[in-house]
Amino acid sequence: MSKRYRYLVCYDIADSKRLRRTAKICESYGTRIQFSVFEASLDHLALARLKVELDDVLNHADDQVLFVNLGLDDSSTPFSMESIGMPYVKKSRLTII
């Protein structure tokens, strides 16, 4: 069994059509925590698949996706989040710019 790692996947997409496609892809791999930020538990194969799917959508001159590795996803390190300002709530709708 492959180890799973917790990632933040954050994106800045210049075009609304690519933005919607990027969000839809990310929704299939993780949980939206802000409009352009997802938390995902991925093994190496799932991470590679996510990157390939996103690579097909992006305009590499205008768009950017960041993958922040938060370490192993196991029961000894529960996911914790804190916010300042508006309270943290999971976003369930797609934002259209």
Account of the 3D structure:
The chain is α+β, with helices and mostly antiparallel strands and 97 residues long. It has two helices and four strands. It has a four-stranded antiparallel sheet with strand order 2-3-1-4. The N and C termini lie far apart (40 Å). The model has no long low-confidence stretch (mean pLDDT 86).
What secondary-structure arrangement, pairings included, does this model have?
Blueprint: E1 5-12, H1 16-27, E2 31-34, E3 37-42, H2 44-57, E4 64-72
Offer a few descriptive terms.
four-stranded antiparallel beta sheet, 97 residues, alpha+beta, globular, single chain, 28% strand, 4 strands
Strand order of the largest sheet: 2-3-1-4
Largest sheet, described in full? 4 strands, antiparallel
Structural class: alpha+beta
Q: What Rg is obtained from the alpha carbons, in whole angstroms?
A: 14 Å
Q: How does the overall form come out from the CA principal axes?
A: globular
Bin the helical content: 25-40%
How far apart the termini lie comes to: 40 Å
How much of the sequence lies in strands comes to 25-35%
Poorly predicted residue ranges:
none
Q: Compute the average pLDDT.
A: 86
Total beta strands:
4
Could you spell the SSE succession in H and E letters?
Answer: EHEEHE
Figure out the total of helices.
2
